[in-house]
Amino acid sequence: MSGCSGNCSSCSSNCKGKEPESLIEPTGEYNNIKHVIGVVSGKGGVGKSMVTSMLAIELALKGFKVGILDADITGPSIPKTFGINTRAMQNEIGILPAVTKTGIKIMSINLMLPDHESPVIWRGPVIAGAVKQFWHDVVWGELDYLLIDCPPGTGDVPLTVFQSIPLDGAVIVTSPQDLVSMIVKKAYNMAKMMDIPVLGIVENMSYVVCPDCGKSFNIFGGGSETVAEELGVPLLGKMPIDINLTKMVDNGEFERFETSYLKDAVNAIIK
Ligand code: ADP
Fold first, then answer.
1. Average pLDDT value for residue range 132-146
2. Residue 239 CA: which ligand 1 atom is closest?
3. Can you tell me which atom of ligand 1 is nearest the CA of 46?
4. Where would you tag: which of 128, 164, 199, 258 has the fewest CB atoms within 10 A of its CB?
């Protein structure tokens, strides 16, 4: 109908037009999740899961109840980061998340697979269905923050996450190569199109510090300042390639890592 705004509540016409339907799915009835934050990236391998895990640890250290929904179904790395090798359990009310040493609740497809090396060879809609199930069927209980480690890119799976889970904000993770900077704009535009506020950008693998002379080297060049400025969002932190991070992940001690790399990102989430 011409001139239709799509808002039937302010319209006198009796056309029985349909208001646009929200695709947002409710979470389970036993869950009370106050804030949902997506951690996104335009491509894989930039450290999105690493940043998600560090944000969760810092939020938990501040006393918040935190969960991580690992929606990166084809590249799930959250359980490994926290040294969790158990399988998910369930009871009559739903699927129970694993709980890390510092009390962070996590759910990942890796907790469902026969072993952690099994590949997930599923088509997009099945993967998206698994993410929705994690949102709805997992007994998250009371959470101040649920961080979603989103699938990388801008394809149908990240789209489903954006459409079906009510995200309060998104943190974009990038690495400083030019190409990735272009890709980061795609992630930004996708969030914008879905009306999800972008809290800012975290630049990972920004530099490396020489263990002998202490000098910093920007091996990939940098460039996130320019991108952040162009997009009008804050640059929330720069994280170096830190060999201690990988060592602690390998030793299952990641939660003991003390860092201030992501202080501003945490503040942007809790403000
Ligand atoms: P993504 O989730 O974007 O695919 P990951 O978080 O899984 O990327 O990171 C890819 C690999 O790089 C992992 O092995 C991770 O431990 C490592 N990594 C990520 N960020 C850093 C960093 N700042 N310093 C050292 N290793 C890192």
1. 96
2. 23
3. 3
4. 258
Using a 6 Å cutoff on CB, does residue 246 contact ligand 1? yes
What does the chain look like in DSSP terms, one character per residue?
-TT--S-GGG------PPPPPP-PPP--TT-EEEEEEEEE-SSTTSSHHHHHHHHHHHHHHTT--EEEEE--TTS--HHHHTT--PPPEEETTEEEPEE-TT--EEE-GGGTSSSTT------HHHHHHHHHHHHHHB---EEEEEEEEPPSSSSHHHHHHHHHS--SEEEEEE-S-HHHHHHHHHHHHHHHHTTPPEEEEEE-S--EE-TTT--EE-TT---HHHHHHHHT--EEEE----HHHHHHHHTT-GGG----TTHHHHHHHH-
What the chain holds in terms of domains, given with CATH numbers, is 27-270 (3.40.50.300)
The predicted-structure confidence for 155-182, as pLDDT tens digits, reads as follows 888 888 888 899 999 999 998 876 567 8
